[in-house]
Q: What sequence folds into this?
């Protein structure tokens, strides 16, 4: 298919479907992004799973379990969307993409390489991490690849619940004892900058953005989304009575946005290289799960084959 015709097609807000002709670099860009996104969902279950057995009440435990199960479901929709792009040349089947992640060849979101040290971190993950994820994913509902766009609609609905449950945990802590409020503040201090890094590098340092925008995969830039997130989140922190850990944060009357300090980009790139506080632990946990649970997969395949033979 002629490239210009394809660009005209997606730029006129038409959707591309799995069997349609598409440029190879469009297919590659989607496989890269969708599979990284899927890995983020399943690795993202780990920091929260750390607190299931220590949730402070049955109600909290049930909500946390439901949320973590939702993340597994998001991974499932996204791996399924990625698989629709498998064309024999570009490998996009679930085993290949997942094994790339286990081998450290494929990225997942930097945020999941930070540990969850207190119960308040579960609140901060819902409020900030899922809040940042929604900000990014609402725009992805309008991306040009049909299966990815449709998966995002459902994911966004569930992410909204996640964001609310996180904020409610922090609201409870902030209205509790002095120690509980301090726990919430410490958590905000730890998660603020890593949450801002979720949006990716600044626009002028983002190698994929231009192509992604042209292909209507990304609909808004990393910096635009980060700014919007800050603008909506700072008043939420104020409502909690917490202080955002950025001495340069200031409302700008002229731009009608918050000005904010420089992100710790060295830390971001170290985490991407595998040197974050929990990178090694996360990958080792996933590798161990794959080894130890291989028999479940084998049994399921054997059972499915048996059913097929009996037909
Ligand atoms: N964590 C890890 N890697 C990142 C991050 C991050 N926070 N931000 C950017 N990167 C990577 C990109 O994947 C890219 O790597 P690659 O070229 O080796 O694949 C590189 O850094 C340069 O960044 P960009 O050129 O800006 O990359 P891109 O245009 O793909 O934008 C973004 C990055 C915004 C994360 C985009 O891929 C996206 O929207 N992805 C889908 C949403 C998603 O994956 N969210 C993860 C969190 S979801 C959750 O909370 C469960």
A:
């Amino acid at each position: 298919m002629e490239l210009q015709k394809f660009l005209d097609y997606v730029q006129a807000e038409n959707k591309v479907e799995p069997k349609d002709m598409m440029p190879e670099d469009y297919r590659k860009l989607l496989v890269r992004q969708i599979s990284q996104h899927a890995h983020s969902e399943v690795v993202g279950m780990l920091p929260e799973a750390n607190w299931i057995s220590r949730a402070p009440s049955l109600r909290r435990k049930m909500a946390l379990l439901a949320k973590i199960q939702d993340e597994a479901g998001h991974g499932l929709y996204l791996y399924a969307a990625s698989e629709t792009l498998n064309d024999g040349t570009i490998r996009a089947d679930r085993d290949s993409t997942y094994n790339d992640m286990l081998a450290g060849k494929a990225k997942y979101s930097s945020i999941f390489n930070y540990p969850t040290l207190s119960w308040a971190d579960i609140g901060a993950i819902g409020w900030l991490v899922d809040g940042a994820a929604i900000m990014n994913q609402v725009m992805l509902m309008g991306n040009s690849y049909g299966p990815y766009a449709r998966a995002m609609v459902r994911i966004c609905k569930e992410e909204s619940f996640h964001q609310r449950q996180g904020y409610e945990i922090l609201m409870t802590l902030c209205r509790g004892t002095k120690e509980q409020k301090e726990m919430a503040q410490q958590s905000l201090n730890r998660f603020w900058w890593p949450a801002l890094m979720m949006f990716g590098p600044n626009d002028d340092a983002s190698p994929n953005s231009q192509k992604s925008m042209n292909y209507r995969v990304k609909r808004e830039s990393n910096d635009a989304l980060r700014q919007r997130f800050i603008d909506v989140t700072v008043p939420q922190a104020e409502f909690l009575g917490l202080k955002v850990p950025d001495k340069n944060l200031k409302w700008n009357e002229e731009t009608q946005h918050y000005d904010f300090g420089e992100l710790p980009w060295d830390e971001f790139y170290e985490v991407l290289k595998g040197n974050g506080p929990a990178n090694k632990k996360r990958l080792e946990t996933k590798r161990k799960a794959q080894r130890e649970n291989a028999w479940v997969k084998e049994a399921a395949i054997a059972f499915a084959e048996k059913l097929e033979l009996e037909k």
The chain has 13 helices and two strands. The first strand starts at residue 250 and ends at 252. The beta strands are 250-252, 257-259. Residues 84 and 98 are 15 Å apart (CA to CA).
